[in-house]
Amino acid sequence: METEAHAPPTGTVREETGRGRSGPTREQLGAWRSFLRAHATITKVLESELVAEQDLSLAAYDVLVQLAEAPDRRRRMTELADAVLLSRSGVTRLVDRLERAGLVTRSPVANDGRGVAAELTRAGLGRLRTASRTHLRGIGTHFAARLHEDDLGALERISRRLAE
After folding, report:
1. Is the torsion defined by CA of 11, 154, 160, 56 positive or negative?
2. Where are the domains of the chain?
3. Distance in angstroms (rounded) separating the CA atoms of residues 47 and 42
4. Which residue in 71, 127, 135 sits closest to 99, CA to CA?
5. How far apart are alpha carbons 44 and 154 in whole angstroms?
6. What is the pTM of this model?
7. Residue 130 neighbours by CB under 8 Å, 6+ apart
8. Which fold has domain 23-163?
9. Per residue in 14-42, pLDDT tens?
10. Cα–Cα distance between 32 and 17 in angstroms, integer?
C-alpha cells in the first residue's frame, strides 16, 4: 500500500504489467518517447549549428555559459560537472580542450589543497558572446517558434516539476 508521501501525483494512471509490477500506460510511454525524441532532435540540430558556424560543441558552449553566469566567472570543477551534467572525467577532458584554446584557465581553490576551479577568460567570454548568436537563433527557430505561448508556459511548468 502506498503512503501519502509516496503516492503518485493526482491524475496519474497506473497499469499492472501482468507480473505484479506497475508500469506506464501506452499513453504515458508514448509521451515519454515523444519527449526523448523531441529533446534528441532539437539538441542534435543545435549542436550541428554550433559546430558548423562556431566550431564549438554544445557541451563546450554549456561550460562557457555556466562559467559566465558564476560569481567571478569561476566554478569548482565538481560544481561545473554537476551543472553541465557531465561526469567529472568528462568535464575535465572538455576543460582541457577549452584551456588549450585559451577560453578557460584552471587554478587551485583557496583553503582546499585538492580543489581546482575553472575560470572563464576574456577570450572565452568573447567566444561565448559570438556563439550565443548562433545558439539563441537556433533556440528561437527550432524550439520557441514551434510552440504557442500557452504551450511554452505549460512546458516550463512540466519541466520544472520533472527536474525536482
Report:
1. positive
2. 23-163
3. 8
4. 127
5. 23
6. 0.81
7. 54
8. Arc Repressor Mutant, subunit A (1.10.10)
9. 544 445 558 999 999 999 999 999 999 99
10. 17
